[in-house]
Amino acid sequence: LRRDVPGESGLPELLLAVERLRHDHTHMNLSDEEERALSDIIGSNANLRRDLWELRFREVNRSADSYHHTDHPAFGQLSTEDIEWLWLLAQREDATNRYRVLAVLESLWLSLPSEQQTVVAPTLASGLREHLSQLDRQRVDLERRRVAAVQAEAKKEDATRAKNRRTISPKLAEIESGSDVQALLWAWRQLVGNGSDREKFNLIRLRKYVGDDYADTFVRGMRRCWRTLDVAIPVPGEGNMIAALGITGLAIDIRAGLDVQSLSIGEAGRAARLAMHELNAFPFWFADLAKAHGAVVRSALHEVINTEWQNTEQDLGQVLRFGAYSEPD
């Protein structure tokens, strides 16, 4: 490996085989020491490194699977001294392979710091310099377009937020008190991860649409809203968005410090009925509610299980479906 060996040595094929084995069988790894040694040796052997890359380009044409030799190669990282060679290789290849070689060349060039590009560019052939100059112009144009698109999107978001705030402003008192259920339901739909079974939900989208201060108002409204919702036990086969809003509001309230032991009998009953609407599992606070208000929770469970058991038009209701494997406590 240390000698400037020609391609017919078989070493490029061996290295590519090792590379592919590592890709196909992730447990087959070289040690860090072996990998560093190979990389250093190949890096210092220009002929071997270039023979390996030529083999990669040929193999891409023959391989129809998902393994792409030129994307993230394990060995033979290219350097600035390979730029001219890649350019000459691209001139010799057919159209399909020329595209791949140029893609590797351009990726290598774009990975260089601008200071290094400035030093290397004058040493390159005129045709290659023009190609790379055009690439740089394209990159500048793409960056300009990207910045313009970001600015346009930000302007659009600002306009949407301003419009939403104008609509919401007259309703702020009702939203904060929890009485404007429709406005709160709209805000609930903007939450990212709005199920109460989630460790956290994300306000990022709601904040983007209404601003931080209005988003906080909506959260306070959700915390109050669940106490006013008159939600019955779920009907098999029917969803209930109002109940989902209530579950989320109660979850926020509990995570903010509400102790379910402090709930009145009426509030505990409302919380128990809301819990029956949770999907796939009881809410994280359900066990605590059952310990603090056992009779109320049993009453809600008896009612919903009886309703689901008597329903003959649907499969098992959601409580019957997941209740059997819920936590015993």
Question: Could you characterize the architecture of this molecule?
Answer:
There is one protein chain. The protein is mainly alpha-helical and 329 residues long. The chain contains 16 helices and no strands. The protein is elongated, with a radius of gyration of 32 Å.
**What structural category do the secondary elements indicate?**
mainly alpha
Gyration radius from CA atoms, angstroms: 32 Å
The number of helical runs is: 16
Order of helices and strands: HHHHHHHHHHHHHHHH
Q: Biggest β-sheet, characterized?
A: none
Number of strands: 0
* 3D shape: elongated
Alpha-carbon distance between the two ends? 66 Å
State the share of residues found in helices, binned by percent: 55-70%
Overall pLDDT confidence: 84
What is the oligomer described by this structure?
Answer: single chain
Low-confidence stretches: none
Strand percentage, roughly?
under 5%
SSE topology sketch:
Layout: H1 11-24, H2 32-43, H3 46-62, H4 83-92, H5 95-111, H6 114-120, H7 126-168, H8 172-177, H9 181-190, H10 204-210, H11 212-225, H12 241-255, H13 265-275, H14 286-292, H15 294-310, H16 318-323
Keywords for this entry:
329 residues, mainly alpha, 65% helix, elongated
Task: Give the gist of this structure.
This protein is mainly α and 329 residues long. The chain has helices at residues 11-24, 32-43, 46-62, 83-92, 95-111, 114-120, 126-168, 172-177, 181-190, 204-210, 212-225, 241-255, 265-275, 286-292, 294-310, 318-323.
